[in-house]
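User: What would this chain look like folded?
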Amino acid sequence: MLGDWGDVRVHADFARTHEAFPNEVSDALAFISAEDVVGYVEAVEDVLESFETRDEYLEDVPDNVLVLQALAARRSMAAELESPLLSGAEIPEGKGATVRITFHDARKGVRELDVTDAEAEKLGGRQVARRGRRPKSATQ
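Assistant: Here's the prediction, encoded as structure tokens.
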């Protein structure tokens, strides 16, 4: 489906008819497929706002917004969004970290997040020993 924007439009229209699928997300997909920048910006802002105002959600990050932004970027129409949930910081080459989340329930798969050094340090966690060869001083 990626890159076939006509199919994206069809799927977005289909999703609009199902009450279980968020209208804001299907609207954003339709606007991306139509290259309607103004419509997309309004729709993705609505998706982000709905995430910010919810009491309960499946993830701690607005994953729908991140996916929509990645799709919109393929058409050079990603929105400039501001939210405490999105750092928006660009990660310089050779800097930052990848946070890997492995669920105990393997059916949920593995998630990876690219974060800045500062964001990674704020996360805390425990220090994990580096795997690989033993240092020369330990082998002698």
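The mean pLDDT is 77. If you want, I can go into more detail on any region.
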